[in-house]
Design goal:
Layout: H1 20-29, H2 35-53, H3 57-67, E1 72-79, E2 82-89, H4 92-108, H5 115-127, H6 132-146
Antiparallel strand pairs: 1-2
Helix pairs in contact: 2-3, 2-5, 3-5, 4-5
């Protein structure tokens, strides 16, 4: 086991919006180290979002991410031979990571032509509090609410 946690390497902000959240998102979106392709997909998606909503694309993206960010989640814990789903609050760093992962995961499952269109569709849906990623957050919260009785097993 480690004696201390490794220090986090700071992310550089992206070239267009000068935002580290965008860089973090693009790093998760990227396949096989193709960062420029991932940036193109993201920027195209933001342009599509701006056309569809007539609002600032980055603001819509941030609103969508905040809408699908979970506050609580359930973790499995074995107590006396039985496995319980114990609700726990999500750490701030993990909240963003989970929201990004869900948005990318459900964007890839959408039925649209290009990845930028899929991503734009998921961003617009999440900003309106609908879509698969938002549903996943609601299901997670519902599961935590249903298992609130086991919260005294928290570790």
């Amino acid at each position: 086991m480690r004696k201390s946690t490794p220090k986090r390497i700071p992310l550089l902000p992206d070239p267009k919006f000068n935002d580290t959240l965008v860089t973090r998102f693009v790093n998760n979106l990227m396949y096989s180290g193709k960062k420029s392709t991932a940036y193109n997909v993201f920027y195209d998606a933001i342009d599509i979002v701006e056309q569809r909503t007539n609002e600032n694309g980055l603001d819509v993206f941030k609103k969508a991410l905040s809408n699908i960010t979970p506050q609580v989640e359930v973790k499995s814990r074995r107590v006396g031979g039985a496995t319980f789903q114990i609700p726990q609050e999500v750490r701030p760093e993990r909240k963003v990571a989970v929201a990004i992962r869900w948005m990318i995961q459900f964007s890839r499952k959408r039925n649209e032509k290009s990845m930028s269109m899929k991503l734009a569709g998921e961003i617009v849906a999440a900003s309106k509090e609908e879509g698969a990623a938002y549903k996943k957050k609601e299901d997670t919260h519902r599961m935590a609410e249903a298992n609130k009785a086991f919260s005294h097993f928290r570790f």
